[in-house]
Specification:
The complex is a heterodimer of chains A (417) and B (165). Chain A is globular, with a radius of gyration of 21 Å. In chain A, strand 2 (31-35), helix 2 and strand 3 form a beta-alpha-beta unit. The relative contact order of chain A is 0.13. Chain A has 15 helices and 18 strands. With 417 residues, chain A is α/β, with parallel strands linked by helices. In chain A, the strands form 5 sheets. In chain A, strands 4-3-2-5-6 form a 5-stranded parallel β-sheet, covered by helices on one side. A 5-stranded parallel β-sheet of chain A has the order 16-15-14-17-18. Chain B has one domain: Aconitase, domain 4, CATH 3.20.19. Chain B is 32% helix and 20% strand. Chain B has helices at 18-21, 24-27, 32-36, 47-50, 71-77, 91-99, 142-149, 153-164; strands at 4-11, 56-59, 83-86, 103-106, 119-123, 127-130, 133-136. Chain B is globular, with a radius of gyration of 15 Å. Classes of the chains: A alpha/beta (417), B alpha/beta (165). The interface between A and B is large, with 51 and 40 residues. Chain A: One of its GO terms (molecular function) is aconitate hydratase activity.
């Protein structure tokens, strides 16, 4: 019998021959990523354990992205200092401060590769699954133990195969299909599981679109969201395709269930207040008045997302009573956006461009909302109170919907504009 | 952890997310007690001041969904809550809670059979009794139960490092 992608990756990492869902295996992570929310807590956990060394400092990466430069004077500078101190004490050379969002850097800098097992102190670690990397989030105590021992226990997940066929209409993209899937399977529909994506629409997706879907697989509770590799994956990582061609879904692998989607007739989708799985087609919410639009995050802050927004905003002005906040995910995306004229387009349209960081997506700056205010963001989560007060309202969408809506001041369909 | 213990029930709904357990801006507070004083404040503002050591949380499905922030488990645990029963748990919260030495029990029936303030009795790895009704519970895998027995992953890791020397 064949294997799911999750099984293949864990077999490759652990050396175990026969594994099945539910088995607990000891894995040896190829990468560990720690971000600034956790630096101080990790330092404390290491101290409590009496650990002074990382077994493989060369495999660790520290990214300061959530609390940068600072949001709260009482706490954030200490998290920053502890990040620097950890890098020195544990001899972690891979240190990135204010260079961008951890998950975007993890694939952009090729830290997380196809075939790897990666653990990181953040839930959206599932992102690099877009390139067949078994990557999943853990807490700081577990990170401390993993750094000390080089091991982590993992339960082999059962898997759901999601076949996505068809061709996206202009103005519809990867974000719309993952929102639709979340609306269907709900926020616990992938609990503990591996979501594995295949189909003709998947083959036509860029790497960034695959990362968007893998990123939001977590919002269904998934342990990982994995894509098969192809020539595009190999090109992105500058790898020989034959080195990674084993990362394909076996026809006879055992899946808990198989879901089929065709995107040809899909309209733009929005996650509505308040729950990621409260998803509606745009026709149900068109015309909703907005106070703010946010384009960015590890879900949709790539250069392709900036290009989509720039094309829509070029030569136009955003609505008078609206704030538009745009945050390129990394310095590389920021610089490319400058080179290609996107930043000028955003500013000329009336937008505010911030330095690469997690920002509003995690309730840090910039652009927090007050009671009754409505934001439309391209990020991944709309829990109550996440982007402001608990009476603010959050919609999630693709960059195309976000940019089109910023011009109109109300939720607007990019397909019919 | 005692093999048999009882506690008063705090009843919580489905899909209690990590932002609801501890908001991002409070999750960075290093003092555990101060951080814990904000636990569940948007959902149950009285929780942090009224919860007593030994109380038990009983929730619906998908408890702890969202962020990997371990502070969500710590913010509950700092009040002396050592056991949570839910219809299901989010994956990372499940790991974090066990790593903090908390016993998690998954059950569809128990949350349906008790209300706020009821007394729930847990016989570890065997059964839960509430309102005169007994419910069998599944046994945790040995490696996870060892972490709980050791009082969390910090102590468990110290032991493992010492044993490997």
């Amino acid at each position: 019998m064949g294997s799911t992608l999750a099984e293949k990756l864990l077999i490759h990492n652990t050396g175990e021959k026969n594994i099945k869902p539910g088995d607990i295996v000891i894995a040896y992570p190829d990468r560990y990523m720690i971000h600034d929310i956790y630096t101080s807590f990790l330092k404390r956990a290491l101290k409590d354990m009496g650990v002074t060394k990382a077994l493989h400092p060369e495999k660790a990466v520290i990214v300061l992205d959530h609390l940068m430069p600072t949001n709260q004077a009482a706490t954030d500078p200490e998290h920053f200092r502890d990040g620097i101190e950890l890098s020195e004490k544990l001899n972690i050379q891979n240190l990135h401060k204010g260079e961008g969002i951890s998950h975007s850097l993890m694939h952009e800098l090729r830290y997380a590769k196809p075939g790897n097992v990666v653990v990181a102190t953040d839930s959206h670690t599932t992102t690099y699954g877009g390139a067949a990397c078994f990557c999943t989030g853990i807490g700081h105590t577990e990170m401390a133990a993993a750094l000390a021992t080089g091991e982590i226990w993992l339960k082999v997940p059962s898997a759901i195969k999601i076949v996505i066929d068809g061709e996206f209409k202009n103005g519809v993209s990867a974000k719309d299909i993952i929102l639709r899937i979340l609306g269907d399977i709900k926020s616990d529909g992938g609990q503990y599981k591996s979501l594995e994506f295949t189909g003709s629409a998947v083959k036509s997706m860029s790497m960034n679109q695959r990362f968007t879907i893998a990123n939001m697989s977590l919002e269904a509770g998934a342990k990982c969201g994995l894509f098969e590799v192809d020539e595009k994956t190999a090109d992105y990582y500058d790898m020989d395709y034959h080195e990674i061609s084993w990362l394909k879904i076996d026809e006879d692998a055992q899946y808990e269930k198989v879901l089929h989607y065709n995107v040809s007739e899909l309209e733009p989708q929005l996650s509505c207040p308040q729950g990621v799985d409260n998803v509606h087609g745009i026709s149900a919410v068109e015309g909703t008045k907005l106070n703010e639009v946010y384009i960015g995050s590890c879900t949709n802050g790539s250069i392709e997302d900036m290009a989509v927004a720039a094309e829509i905003l070029k030569g136009k002005k955003i609505a008078k009573y609206l704030k538009l906040v745009i945050i390129p995910a990394t310095n590389h995306v920021f610089k490319e956006s400058m080179r290609l004229g996107y930043i000028k387009t955003f500013i000329d349209a009336g937008g505010m461009v911030s330095h690469p960081c997690c920002g509003l997506c995690c309730g840090q700056p910039y652009g927090l909302l007050s009671d009754g205010e409505v934001v439309l963001g391209t990020n991944n989560r709309n829990f109550i109170g996440r982007m402001g007060t608990k009476k603010s309202l959050i919609y999630l969408s693709s960059p195309a919907v976000a940019a089109t809506s910023a011009l109109a001041g109300v939720i607007t369909n990019p397909v019919t504009q | 952890m005692e093999k048999k213990f009882s506690g008063k029930v705090w009843k919580l709904p489905d899909d209690v997310d990590t932002d609801t357990i501890i908001a991002g801006r409070h999750g960075v507070i290093l003092d555990k007690k101060e951080m814990g004083s904000h636990c569940l404040e948007t959902l149950r503002p009285e929780f942090a001041s009224e919860v007593k050591p030994g109380d038990i949380l009983v929730a619906g499905k998908n408890f702890g969904c969202g962020s990997s922030r371990e502070m969500a488990a710590e913010a509950i645990n700092v009040h002396g809550v050592e056991c949570i029963v839910a219809k299901s748990f989010a994956r990372i919260f499940f790991r974090n809670a066990i790593n903090n030495g908390m016993l998690l029990i998954e059950s569809e029936e128990i949350p349906e059979s008790c209300e706020e303030g009821d007394i729930l009795t847990v016989e570890v790895n065997q059964k839960v009794t509430v309102n005169g009704k007994g419910f069998e519970i599944s046994k945790l895998p040995d490696n996870l139960f060892a972490i709980i027995q050791d009082g969390g992953l910090v102590k468990n890791t110290i032991k493992r490092i010492q044993n490997s020397k």
